[in-house]
Amino acid sequence: MDRKTKIDREKLDAAASRLRAIAHPMRIAIIELLESKPLSVTEIYSELKIEQAAASHHLNILKNQNMLDARRRGKKIYYSLRNHALPELIECINRCNE
Asked: CB 3.0-4.6 Å disulfide test: which of 35, 45, 62, 72 passes with 55?
């Protein structure tokens, strides 16, 4: 059977943008933190021991790629993973590089 795989250029471009968004150690760490439960910016930067501005920057990149949901509760905004396959994707990438 001679079958060619047709790649949808738009889907490929979108996937490449998302991969670039997670291609940073701090963003991978944020994804790992959010794997278990939603967290506020304060909880994220405190846990990662980084500046609030850096945490916000990385969260915005992930949010702009539709990887995170942001929900306001009172004065705080809580971030959660929009797609729980993200940690699996990171694990898959790690396995491919073994």
From this structure: 45
**Does domain 10-96 correspond to CATH entry 1.10.1200.10?**
no
Helix intervals (H) in 2-85 = 9-22, 25-34, 41-48, 52-64
Whole-model pTM? 0.81
Collapsed DSSP state (helix, strand, coil) of residue 6: coil
Q: Report the C-alpha gap between 36 and 17 in whole angstroms.
A: 25
Residue 51 backbone dihedrals phi, psi, to 5 degrees: -70, 150
pLDDT tens over the chain, length 98 residues: 455 677 788 888 888 888 888 889 999 999 999 999 999 999 999 999 999 999 999 999 999 999 999 999 999 999 999 887 777 777 767 677 76
Instruction: Supply 55's token pair.
Output: 């945490």
